[in-house]
Amino acid sequence: MMNKSPGGADPTLTGLGTQSAQSGTGPEGTRPVAIRARGLGVVRGGRTVLDSLDFDIHRGQVTGLLGPSGCGKSTLMRAIAGTQAKVTGTLDVLGRPAGSAALRSRLGYVTQAPSVYLDLTARQNLDYFSSILDPWLNRSDRRAQVDRALTEVDLTGHADALAGNLSGGQLSRVSLAVALLGTPELLVLDEPTVGLDPVLRRDLWNLFHRLADERGTTLLVSSHVMDEADRCERLLLMRSGRILADDTPDALRGHTRTDTIEDAFLHLVDAAKQQEEATR
Ligand SMILES: Nc1ncnc2c1ncn2[C@@H]1O[C@H](COP(=O)(O)OP(=O)(O)OP(=O)(O)O)[C@@H](O)[C@H]1O
């Protein structure tokens, strides 16, 4: 299922320009690229929602996609997952054009709306999705796969509860467990920590880092909560369909001479506004 590559190394990708498109070299300079966007655009309802984005996301890292509500995070994630219409420019995912059929088993995408059956238990949902993902798996291997996914998202205590009776946070963890079934190389998670208490948020971020460190999984995680920025190795900051910054949290604070990512973001927004006014 997973074309596992320790440390994210993939000979088909090694050697592609690995330097970030917008800024920074750092340790990412030596990592292969998982997602490459050049001149990426999306128009929705006649409006330009993503405006000529250029960036690289590197393998085996947790990259945060941060920006205010409506800036285009979900649209970008849909484009990466191959579910967004009217995408222009270049968008390569794991070395193939986004949306390629060959990417289906290599990419896990969790939307903001939990996509599970409410009249099944958490375990029954996982059994069902596992049987679709890999119809030939024998009963004990399937059981082990489902148990692993339930443990990873800390839901073993609720395995036999009807999904319809779970809290919002528990339900979103069932969706995440579904995405983890196939041990995907790339996980695209749209606001996975919304509505979770601080302990669960911390545990989920720890899980994301374990997946990156131990399996070489690449994670792109969106959030509109700036204090989650320091949980990420790399950040893409978005505003109004554009990328404001692409860097590490430390470098962002350093460049903007601020103490927090929220202040760094506000600093960058002000600078972008000034530039827009100057070019008008
Ligand atoms: N079907 C549509 N037609 C026109 N505009 C749309 C459509 N769907 C979304 N938009 C607009 O596209 C922009 C980006 O939406 P998107 O959902 O990607 O933002 P987001 O950053 O994920 O927001 P949030 O954090 O609230 O989920 C928004 O301004 C939204 O109003």
TrEMBL record:
GO molecular function, one term: ATP binding
Keywords, alphabetical: ATP-binding, Nucleotide-binding
SUPFAM superfamilies hit by this protein: P-loop containing nucleoside triphosphate hydrolases
Pfam family, one: ABC_tran
Region listing for Disordered, in residue ranges: 1-32
Chain ranges of the ABC transporter domain: 35-265
Entry-linked InterPro entries: AAA+_ATPase, ABC_transporter-like_ATP-bd, ABC_transporter-like_CS, P-loop_NTPase
Compositional bias (Polar residues): 15-25
PANTHER family recorded: ABC TRANSPORTER G FAMILY MEMBER 20 ISOFORM X1 (PTHR43038:SF3), ATP-BINDING CASSETTE, SUB-FAMILY H, MEMBER 1 (PTHR43038)
Stated name of the protein: ABC transporter ATP-binding protein
Organism: Streptomyces pathocidini
